[in-house]
Design goal:
Elements lengths: L2 H23 L2 E9 L3 E7 L9 E7 L2 E11 L4 E10 L8 E2 L7 E11 L6 E8 L1
Antiparallel strand pairs: 1-8, 2-7, 3-6, 3-8, 4-5, 4-7
C-alpha cells in the first residue's frame, strides 16, 4: 500500500468516527410518557437519576392538540427551572428545543401545565424527550 492511500484511508476512518459521534450526541431519549386529561390541568413525568443527565428537553404530543402553558423542571438537588412555554402544540407536534440551566444534574421530574383540545378521538399523550 502506498503512502497516499494509507493517509487517505486514515482520514476517512477518522471522519467516519466523528460523524458517528455527532449522530450519537444528537440522539433524543424518551424519558417518559403521560396520558393527559382535563381542560386545564397539571401533570408530571418522573425521570430520576437512573436516566442520567440531560442538557436539552422537548415534549411531543400525540392524540389531540394541546395548549402547553408552563414547564417546571425539578433537579436532583432541589433546584428548578420554571420555563414559560405558552404554545399550542398540534397533534404529532413538538415544543422547541429547551436548553436546561442545570445540565450537569439529573432531572427528578418535569411538571407541566396544559389545556387539552379534543380535536380527535381518543386519548392525548405527552412524551418527554431528553438530549445529552
Amino acid at each position: 500500500m502506498d503512502r497516499r492511500s494509507f493517509v487517505t484511508g486514515l482520514a476517512l476512518a477518522a471522519a467516519g468516527g466523528l460523524v458517528a459521534t455527532q449522530a450519537q450526541a444528537a440522539t433524543w431519549y424518551s424519558l417518559g410518557t403521560r396520558r393527559v386529561n382535563g381542560l386545564v390541568d397539571v401533570d408530571q413525568i418522573n425521570v430520576g437519576a437512573g436516566a442520567g443527565v440531560f442538557d436539552k428537553i422537548r415534549l411531543k404530543v400525540t392524540g389531540n392538540d394541546l395548549m402547553l402553558y408552563d414547564l417546571d423542571v425539578r433537579y436532583g438537588n432541589g433546584a428548578r427551572d420554571d420555563i414559560p412555554v405558552r404554545l399550542l402544540i398540534p397533534e404529532g407536534g413538538m415544543t422547541r428545543i429547551i436548553d436546561l440551566r442545570y445540565h450537569d444534574r439529573f432531572i427528578r421530574y418535569v411538571r407541566f401545565t396544559y389545556g387539552k383540545f379534543a380535536n380527535g378521538g381518543g386519548s392525548t399523550f405527552v412524551e418527554l424527550l431528553g438530549r445529552r
